[in-house]
Amino acid sequence: MSLVVGLDIGGTKTAAGLVDPSGELLETATRPTPGAEGREAILATAAGLVRSLLREGVTAVGVGSAGVIDPVRGVVVSATSALAGWAGTDLRGELSRGLGLPVAVDNDVHAHALGELWRGAAAGHSDVLLVAVGTGVGASLVLGGRVRHGAHAVAGHAGHVPVAAAAGLPCPCGGQGHVEAVASGPALLGAYRRRAGTETPGGLAEVARLAAAGDPVAAEVLATGATALGQAIGGLMNVLDPEIVIVGGGVAGCGEPWWGPLRAAVAAETLPALRDVPVRPAALSATAALLGAARLALTTDFGGPGPE
After folding, report:
1. Which among 54, 115, 131, 208 is least buried, having the fewest CB atoms inside 10 angstroms?
2. Same structural domain for residues 54 and 133?
């Protein structure tokens, strides 16, 4: 039986999983990502995790990585400062040479979408919009069962859609007024701390608990961010016409005080023909990107230049 290893390289954690062709996750391994130590350390950590899972029958490796990834060349086009020196890395070439196996690579949010499409909340659909809300806001568009990357490999940067609630707020990309500046996890937590004048040692999870318990400040902060995100998602739906929208990431765990305003905003923005498009939570949590990366390895024709 052919086996593959899926690899998820994030800003804080790198995980690897041994996966069979049915999508069964047989074994996993995880280590902190040494992002501050630079490219060589990040690659060494990733390769070490893959080697720890290698066994007879492993035929390829699939990688979902943070950053803008060119899946045709297998190169990191750009990345945030969380991964020092990551931009410009020949990710496919470096790992393939080091491991002696063919390697397919893509952005981690695209890998997340492939995982949900294969074994998660989007199974059975071919036209899917996935939105991941955590440290940032990212998205992936799947049309006809295939991830679409765009002309410059940056398709899916939903966090940089302008929204009124973020007017004047700085975005991590260097711009202003983007939805990530008001809807991401750090943005929500920062807004609550400013409004409430407390450090909330429990982080965003504590804010969500307070909102569920009726705290008006916590509820308003979550509703503001969720409404802005819902407006952006509704606009994207009008352009992309998906069968289903999947929303995942850590912020999606904030419960009904977040989901209620999100769904209301989506409904207010979408065209009548799209009002019945389901907006559902992701089903696979932390394993989505691993399974999606594995799926990439299983479906890539390594005799060609790589996925479109």
Report:
1. 54
2. no
d(CA 198, CA 209): 15
The SS3 assignment for 285 reads helix
Distance CA 89, CA 107 (A): 13
Range of the domain at 72: 3-113+286-299
Give the Cα separation of 221 and 211 in Å (integer).
9
Are 252 and 155 in a shared domain? yes
Q: pLDDT, tens digit, for every residue of 82-91? A: 899 999 999 9
Residue 307: per-residue pLDDT: 44
Q: Which of 32, 25, 70 shows the shortest CA–CA distance to 49?
A: 32
CA–CA separation, 171 vs 166, rounded Å? 9
Position of tokens 């060349």? Answer: 73
What distance in Å separates the CA atoms of residue 298 and residue 164, rounded to the nearest whole number? 42
pLDDT band with cut points at 50, 70 and 90 for residue 11: confident
For tokens 């009548």, what's the residue? 272
If asked whether residues 131 and 253 sit together in one domain, one would say yes
- Using alpha carbons only, give the angle 264, 266, 269 rounded to the nearest 5 degrees: 110
Distance, CA of 150 to chain centre? 17
- Amino acid letter at 297? A
Whether the per-residue pLDDT at 172 is higher than 90: the answer is no
